[in-house]
Design brief:
Strand content: 5-15%
Pfam family, one: DUF3605
Structural class: alpha+beta
Number of strands: 4
Order of helices and strands: HHHHEEHEEH
Number of helices: 6
Helix content: 25-40%
InterPro entries: DUF3605
Protein name: N-acetylglucosamine-induced protein 1
Organism: Curvularia kusanoi (Cochliobolus kusanoi)
Shape: globular
Length: 219
């Protein structure tokens, strides 16, 4: 029997009745890495466990965090629509998600509550359902080392102090990371990521002010 041709990446994880006739515009010109992920059947993707998440953060391999293939496809469709409607992802984040009329901080780092907003990661990575992924957005800069693109020792300690004060009293197990400059999808607004393991839902509602991630809203 002739060998069956593999599906084009843009048909994978799509019901056959809904297969597009050609590659959708939102999937054109994406990276080979994204093509490879989107072209992987969801059933072949393994969700990361909490020990795996902690270890990847500990060894600073945050570049290996990936979305579930079908979620990455939805994310690409979403950001394609955003750029058309808002001009850029940053405009959407600032105006709709953060609802900040000014990005000018009122105080020094972590000094003024109004300079900080905690929201769900709109498009979280492929994680065990017990892991909740939040993003802490700040109006103030958190200094990076110019050579490495990673946090300086001082900014790392500032973030650590904030995380311990804000999250640790309420969640037994947590971890945080700040994307390397080369990995950031939103460059103009400072932010870092916090992973919580089995957090209390009432605490989540309180700390995010009842936020709902865009992945739960986007059709």
């Amino acid at each position: 029997m002739p060998k069956e041709e593999p599906l084009p990446f843009w048909k994978v994880n799509v019901p056959q009745a809904q297969w597009p006739g050609e590659c959708p515009d939102f999937l054109r010109d994406i990276s080979e890495k994204d093509q490879r992920i989107i072209g992987t059947p969801d059933e072949e993707y393994t969700l990361l466990t909490w020990p795996e998440v902690r270890e990847l953060i500990r060894i600073d391999r945050i570049d290996t965090f990936h979305r579930v293939p079908s979620e990455l496809r939805r994310y690409r469709a979403f950001t394609y629509r955003l750029v058309k409607e808002y001009g850029s992802i940053m405009n959407f984040i600032v105006n709709e998600r953060l609802q900040w009329t000014s990005l000018q901080p009122r105080g020094k780092p972590f000094e003024v509550d109004e300079d900080i907003k905690i929201l769900y990661n709109d498009w979280p990575y492929g994680l065990n359902p017990d892991i909740v992924h939040l993003v802490v957005w700040t109006k103030f800069e958190l200094e990076d080392d110019e050579e490495t693109g990673r946090c300086t020792a001082e900014s790392r300690q500032e973030i650590e102090n904030y995380v311990q004060k804000t999250f640790a009293p309420h969640v037994k197990e947590l971890a945080w990371f700040k994307n390397w400059k080369s990995l950031k999808s939103v460059h103009a607004v400072e932010h870092f990521h916090v992973m919580l393991y089995k957090p209390d839902r009432d605490f989540l509602k309180q700390i995010t002010n009842g936020d709902v991630p865009m992945t739960d809203k986007f059709d």
